[in-house]
Amino acid sequence: MSQLANQYGAINLSQGFPNFPVDEQLLQISERLLRENIHQYTPMAGLPSLLEKIAKLTLLHYQRKINSITEIVVTAGATQGIYTAINTFVNKGEEVIILDPSYDSYEPSVLMAGGVPVRISLNDDYSPDFNRIEAALSTKTKMIIVNNPHNPTGRIWTDAEFEAFELLLEKHPQVLILGDEVYEYISFSHPHISFHTRPKLIDRTIIASSFGKSLHVTGWKVGYLIAPEKLMTEIKNVHQFLVFSVNSLSQHVISDYLDVVDFNAISKMYLQKRDLFRQLIKDSRFELLPCDGTYFQLMSYRNISTHNDVDFSRELVTKHGVAAIPLSVFYKDGTDNKVLRFCFAKTDKTLIAAAEKLNRI
């Protein structure tokens, strides 16, 4: 869709990355450190100062005390972390439950490990369907992936849903959890509930986080995994020969930047953008769906067209000058509910211009 947007000169609200400048403080730190002697390999698991600050960040936001030496690894983006976690623990023929609509890297990572992806659709309101999940769980199940806050829907799990999940997994102690929490610092309607705060699950959970998403530097490709030492030891064995270590400059810069950045301000900034976009669109023919977190807004075009979502998204670019992502591509079975995903991690000017075009449809 980004390529199509470039071809037709459309406003790109499809791919999930910000188009506004990064924090000036981050640039100043980058410029200062660039000329220092920091351009060789860092330790395999990550820059020690960065690992320590990740541990402090986790304690501050989730009241979870973790060992910076034995329970964290810095990865070349969360996607590499997710791939590493899956390929560390999933063996040939073992099953991994994926909740659809889902991020597109999950299934290929499972297939590369020789595993079997088991795709299960969420409910119509994008809440977890625990009856379907329970029916899919078996002795072959090795892992279940939970993305929260959720891309592409923007939904956040409730405490009651976590409790139901905990009861369900008590019956299947062999199942590991991969918690994809890359949008953890972007929540609106209610606070993000992290696996970090679930003592019944934490001993078998690997949590993926992303500085790229949290700090608006997606191109730096820096993320991290947190897991109990017994799991992290095995993860590092794979990480060492897959990446060895993440680029040193980014790690040093982020380490220093964590001393000054306010993660609460990040959520407030995206809340303002969400509310601006929703206000601009509210009188259009599109139907706004709930958005609890992330920087994605789902909109139904059911009142506009009967075309399938792929065709309508192409028409949106070629005829109306705005690019979005059709939701069906996030489903294994191509479920089409006439819904598109729009990214509002854009400048106010971009959002206003896009809304003007959408309101004319």
TrEMBL record:
InterPro entries: Aminotransferase_I/II_large (IPR004839), Kynurenine-oxoglutarate_AT (IPR051326), PyrdxlP-dep_Trfase (IPR015424), PyrdxlP-dep_Trfase_major (IPR015421), PyrdxlP-dep_Trfase_small (IPR015422). CDD domains: AAT_like (cd00609). It comes from the Bacteria. The keyword Transferase applies. Residues 11-357 form the Aminotransferase class I/classII large domain. Pfam families: Aminotran_1_2 (PF00155). GO terms for molecular function: kynurenine-oxoglutarate transaminase activity; pyridoxal phosphate binding. Keywords: Aminotransferase, Pyridoxal phosphate, Transferase. This is Putative aminotransferase. It comes from Flavobacterium limnosediminis JC2902. PANTHER family: FI04487P. The lineage of its organism: Bacteria, Pseudomonadati, Bacteroidota, Flavobacteriia, Flavobacteriales. Its cofactor is pyridoxal 5'-phosphate. Belongs to the class-I pyridoxal-phosphate-dependent aminotransferase family. One of its GO terms (cellular component) is cytoplasm.
